[in-house]
Structure prediction request, 443 residues.
Amino acid sequence: MFDKYRDYFDIDPEYFPQVNKELIEENPELWKKFYPHETFVKMLKDIISILSRKQKVSLWVEGAYGTGKSHAVLTMKKLLEVSEEETREYFDRFSNILSNDLFNSLQQIKNSGKKLLTVHRYGSSNINGDADLCFLIQKSIAQALEENGLKGGDNVLRNKWIEYLQQDWVKHFFTEERLERFGGDDISQIIENLQEFEGDALQSLMSQLMDLAKQERLPDLQMTTDNLIAWIEEIIKINDLKAIAFIWDEFTEFFKNNARHLTGFQQIVDLSSRMPFYMIIVTHNVTHIFPEGDKDWKKIMDRFINPICNIELPENMAFKLMGQAMQESRDEEVREDWHDTRDSLYERTHESRVLVKKKANIDDTTLKSILPIHPYAALLLKLHSIQIKEACLTSLRMIVVMKFKDFSILLITTVQTMIIPILPSICFGTFSMKKARNFCHTI
Prediction:
């Protein structure tokens, strides 16, 4: 038997309390560690229903801070993109949650013979009006097309720019300073380049022109909703796409800044009724922004799956994720030794497990998986997490940060609860069981 419990575990050094697109790109395998709780499974079923055109609407994902919305939608994105082998591996890892029928439904969409283009964007605080919204959607789709080696659907925008630049007065607008961004080319050369360029060269020039239109607030050249819709229709057609799934995380600020200017957004999300373009927006709760009975709000809600996909962590998820983070050693002898030790600890915690099961609606299997963390201590960790508004993420952060060094935990936070005097350490024999028991009875 080891002197320290930490020697029985391989603690994942790549655990991150918050996950975003950049983090997953830097750690390509990170999405495979996402625990598919009940609301994630519902979201997966919703996107399958949408992509199979059983419901011709978009998807709204909502949840409080700390519920793992970003990780959930990025895991969904990966499942839409990766090979059948990788998808099967993920489903097999969580076979008690993810059914084979769900796997087959997902693969049927992915194996349709047509490309499914996924797009991801994060943050919406800089959007003020339809022009900004359309510009950013177009820019994000264009980037995804380039990354996937697909055609850019530039004809709509190319023709619009050529027509605009051929007007006589435009020559006076393009001063030497403005032409510097185009390498010193004059208007005639820019028009010629628009007519002749293809591929990356054309997309680069178009991007420069779009940036100029946005910065200079050129009303005739800013992307309109009608132009965007025509452009999306073109790229779906010329690339023979199965669908475009546009994931926009942290979309809450858009509604705060544009609550009374939602006509363009309505038109864009209405696209799903007639073509396979789907917005998947991710927000905190925004219903309080709109007055009860607001007609614009009802119109928008009608364009999304009803009810909204609300990402919630079940009451006992903190315990399940703690167990997930505590991976047993791969060494067979070490594992056998640990199982003997764990079984002994399990027998010694009968009374505390009975109490914690009542308080947290949790089963014996999960409580066993988090040993040697005492059931009382695990419940207190969960409550501590709630106190500082980050749900079960904080419990996991604690487990990784303390690196299982003697299982000591220094509670030097500002939380004003009884946890601090009760929980100087979280393992057997090192804190007052009587105090812990009495405290848990008061919860």
